[in-house]
Every structure is written in C-alpha cells, then in structure tokens.
Specification:
Elements lengths: L1 H11 L1 E3 L2 E12 L11 H17 L6 E11 L9 H11 L5 E4 L2 H4 L3 H14 L3 E4 L4 E2 L9 H31 L12 E6 L2 E6 L1 H15 L4 H10 L5 H7 L15 H8 L8 E3 L2 E3 L8 E3 L6 E3 L9 H18 L17 E3 L7 E5 L2 E5 L15 E3 H18 L4 H45 L5 H46 L10 H7 E6 L5 E5 H7 L2
Length: 551
C-alpha cells in the first residue's frame, strides 16, 4: 500500500526556485439552509481562500508554494454526506495524483457528518499525502502542531454534525406546521400538477396536459390492463416518462428529443399517489438523519398529515380506490416471489451487475431460490439489453469455488482467513470506540467549564440568565452525546456478532465444509464487483486480489 501513497507525492510535488509546490484544490460548498448567510456564498468562500493563498505565497519565509490546480464547488448540496458532484470530481483528481492539497474556508464547508469527515481528515487524506488547510480554523494538517489541534478539530466536526441535526429538526418542525396548515411543502409538484402560491401558501394546481396521462393510467389499470401493457402503449404514443417531462416541460416527444419508456416503479408511484383525488396527503416518510442513518422510514397511515379537498382533483376517489384494490392483490401475489427477503438471500445484490449495460442486476424469488436478471432486457428504447439470468444457488457454488481457488493460489491459510476477518472488524470497532471516547472527553470538558461558570455566577461575575443558558446548552449536548453513544454501542454489538459468524465461515471456506452460505456482508467485504454477460460469462473481481499484489 505504501507504493500507492508514494505515487501521489511523486506526481504532485514539484519545485519552484527550490521551494516545494503544493498543487491545491479550492473547495467550496453551499447548501440550501436558510440560516446560511450571503457571507457563505461560493464566490465569497473562493475569494477568501485565494486571499489566503496570495498572502501565503508572498511570505518570504514560506516553506512551500501553493498553486491552484482547480476550483471545485457544490451549490445546493448538504454537508451531511459526501455524495456531491464537485467533491467527487476533486477526489478523482486526488486519486489521479493531480493534486496534493485541499483548501476550504472552514471545516463545515468540507462536511458536517462527524464520522465521515473525521475519516477523510484522519485516514484517507493523510494516507494519500494530501495537505488539508481550513483557513478560518487556522488548521494545516502538515503543520508541526497539527497533532495538538486534533481534539479541537474533532470537537468542531462534532459541533458541525450537531448543528446540522439541529437545523434539520427546526426545518422539520417548520415543515410540519406548514403541512398542517394545508400547504404543499414538496420540492417538486407531483406529475399532473404544478405549484403556485395562492393566498400566501403553496398549492397544487392541475397541469392539463400531464393530468390527462395520470387519468389515463388510472383508468387503464382499474379496467384490468397490466402495468407492462400501460408502459408499452405510453411508449407507442410517444409519451415522455416523468423525468424527461420535467426536462422538456411537455408530454409528447418531439423531433430531436429522446423517448424513453416509463419504468414499472414510475407507474406504481402514480397509482399510489393519494393527492390525485384532491386530498393533500403529506408526511408519508420520515428521514432517519436525526438518528445518524441514511434513507427514510415509511410511516403508518395514522401518522400522515392529510388536508381534505385541498386542491382540484384529477381523478375521483372511487377510481383511486378501485386501482388500490388491484395494486393490493398484485402485491400479495408478488410477496411470494419478490417481497420479504430473508437475511441470507440476495447475498450478491449490492455487487452484481449486468456485464453489457452495467446496470445492477434485479432479483425475483422463485420457490426456494432467487433469480438475478437484467431488467433492461424488456426495454423498448435504446437502453434495451440482452437477456441474461442466473439463480442464487448456482451463483453461491460458483463464487465459493472460485473464492477458494483464488485463496489457495494466493497461499492463504485458515489462520490468514481468520486474521483478515478480525482485522476488518477490529478496525471498524476501534473507529467507533474512538468516537465514543471523544464524546466522553467533550462532555467532561463542558461540565468542567460549566463548573467554572457556576463559580463566576456565585461570585456575581455572571448573570443568572447567562449561567442558566450555558447550563441548558450543556445539558442538551449531554443528551445528544448519550443518545449517540447508545447508537454506537449497538453498532459495536452488531459488528461483534457478525465478526464471530464470518470468522467461523472463513475458517471453513477453504475446505468447503458444511452448507454455510456467503452472506451479504461477507460478499461485499470480499467482492468488488461481479458481471454477467449475454454469452453466459461471469466475471468476478475480488477485493483481496488487489491487496495481495501490493504486498
């Protein structure tokens, strides 16, 4: 692995007048938070960083020169995750060895997720020999005193994480009030409507052209037509799918435009939208962000926020209910083949792709087995792919056999397998344990500071209002830390259980003992990707193979 790290240094470190040059990226980010001021604009961030660079390069005693390779930015992107186009482009240039320095205005512009931000600053960037500078925090990861700033940096990242959660809670509360007042709060209108402000609140207004398609879908489905038949006829009639409609702003395909067929999930989404019969139905989902998790929970109908007759209906309630009867019957039938996946099923779902179109393979249950197939084989537009499929049972045998063969060729022994598994899990557990320690340190420091403030309050050097405000802030922080610690400790217990299960499986893998199957966690740990081609060829890319080459 050290060989990889040297490559970054070699490709990016040049000398100007005997001074090393840091080929740097300027990174700026602005989310859509209402609390973010104009002073946080992308332009302001970039200007501030450029001024810092100019001042640095004008210093005659500087130890290195900063040269700007490129400017990377993300507008309207949250800092709670790193799924951002500008950030990904920057990291691709880092991996390509084009840059070896990153400059940001402050830590919060880089990211607000405590764990992921810490992972980049403490592990990924140091390994790649990338200098990280946070201008307003006076932090330079290559500076002699950087180690002494780690605790301060971690606390700031933790505060940024808490701030993001606090903003999210406030925005959610404001959104709930608006929803209860009958206001539509979605980012985009449902297909068939547009959003307009009426009497001070946002309302759904029927868009006639697309509303006809909504009505057509409901009528055809309620009359007995299948979803695939509806998709085929929409394609034959040149009706744009919803995403293309949002791009072109008209229903029917015109010369020079690409026509794509509707997806099965898009038709179902239309059929499941309660808003089409005139009631405003909101809060059907709730984000898991406050729990430090991704995705959303599907809420029970009793938790929905419903405003009856909030806007003009596109279809009748009777037509909607008739469609729901068919949907429910179809779902019950599908439950035997596609729903209720067990933990040991679809082990390769997250790493298995079509070799021809590179889309993720879809799954369907048949009896006691699971079939992987390329759904694009049924497409009628230019995305159509060749037919290909394979059962999980057969795939398990092929992967286990090839996995065993590759490990035997590499000279792995049973103890090596157990060691590899333990190392992976131990690193994850240690990372979480370190975060718990940081939380404990922060709580202790805030308690000590509060004790000092209490003495000032007793000596009448601090007002009661100021002291009570500080105490409330400390108590809120303590509650946040305790909840976070409980979540982290649950994660550790889950990892420890998985560690025992996978260690037992790995020890038996070389001899193919027993009937233990590869589970999803192990598949993702050992396999980078798998591709099934139209000619039946199966390509398996193991993670450990690359690691062995670097040994």
């Amino acid at each position: 692995m050290a060989r990889t790290a040297k490559r970054y240094k070699k490709n990016t470190e040049k000398k100007v007048l005997g001074i090393p040059v840091c080929m740097a990226a300027i990174y700026a980010r602005l989310s859509v938070d209402s609390d973010e001021k104009k002073s946080e604009s992308i332009e302001t961030q970039v200007t501030l960083i450029k001024e810092f660079i100019q001042k640095h390069n004008e210093n005659p005693d500087r130890e290195y020169e900063i040269a700007v390779y490129d400017i990377y930015s993300d507008l309207g992107k949250t800092g709670t995750n790193f799924d951002r186009p500008g950030f990904e482009r920057m990291m691709n240039d880092v991996r390509a060895g084009k840059i070896n320095g990153i400059l940001v205005k402050d830590f919060s512009r880089f990211g607000r997720n405590y764990i992921e931000t810490g992972n980049y600053l403490e592990k990924i960037l140091p390994f790649m020999k990338v200098r990280f500078i946070s201008v307003c925090d006076n932090y330079d990861s290559f500076a002699p005193g950087a180690k002494n700033q780690e605790l301060s940096m971690n606390i700031k990242n933790l505060v940024n994480d808490a701030y993001a959660k606090d903003i999210s809670a406030k925005e959610r509360a404001a959104k709930r009030i608006a929803q209860k007042n009958g206001e539509y709060v979605g980012s985009t209108a449902p297909y068939g409507y547009r959003v307009e402000k009426v009497n001070g609140i946002y309302k759904l207004i029927v868009e006639p052209e697309s509303a006809k398609i909504v009505r057509r879908i409901f009528e055809e489905y309620a009359s007995g037509d299948g979803i695939q038949s509806i998709i085929d006829r929409l394609f034959e009639d040149g009706v744009h799918r919803i995403s293309d409609y949002n791009q072109y702003h008209h229903v029917y395909c015109k010369d020079g435009e690409k026509l794509h067929q509707w997806g099965n999930s898009s038709i179902r989404a239309v059929l499941n939208r309660n808003n089409y019969y005139g009631d405003l139905v909101q809060r059907k989902y709730e984000s898991r962000f406050q729990r430090g998790e991704k995705w959303c929970d599907i809420l029970d109908e009793s938790q929905w926020i419903i405003t009856p007759n909030a806007h003009e209906a596109i279809i009748s309630r009777e037509l909607f209910d008739k469609a729901q009867v068919r949907l429910k019957a179809a779902q019950q039938k599908a439950a035997k083949t596609t729903a209720g996946w067990e933990e040991d099923e679809r082990a390769f779902y997250n790493v298995f792709y079509c070799g021809d179109c590179k889309r993720k393979m879809c799954t369907r249950r048949y009896g006691n087995d699971v079939l992987y197939f390329c759904n694009a084989a049924q497409y009628r537009d230019e995305r159509k792919c060749s037919h290909k499929s394979i059962y999980e049972g057969k795939l398990q045998k092929i992967v286990r056999s090839e996995l065993t063969r590759q490990m035997q060729l590499a000279g792995f022994k049973k103890k090596d397998m157990s060691s590899m598994s333990n190392d992976i899990f131990s690193a994850k557990i240690l990372e979480i344990q370190n975060e718990i320690k940081k939380l404990d340190v922060e709580v202790e420091q805030r308690s000590e500071k509060l004790a000092q403030e209490f003495m000032q309050y007793k000596d009448e050097k601090l007002s009661r209002e100021a002291y009570m405000e500080m105490r409330e802030e400390r108590n809120n922080w303590k509650i946040f830390c305790e909840e976070r610690k409980e979540t982290l400790e649950q994660t550790i217990r889950k990892l420890q259980k998985q560690q025992k299960e996978e260690a037992r499986f790995l020890r038996s893998l070389l001899d193919l003992e027993g009937t233990t199957k590869i589970n999803a966690e192990l598949a993702e740990a050992l396999i980078e990707s798998m591709y099934l081609y139209g000619d039946g060829r199966l390509e398996i890319n193991f993670r450990f193979k690359g690691a062995i080459e670097h040994e």
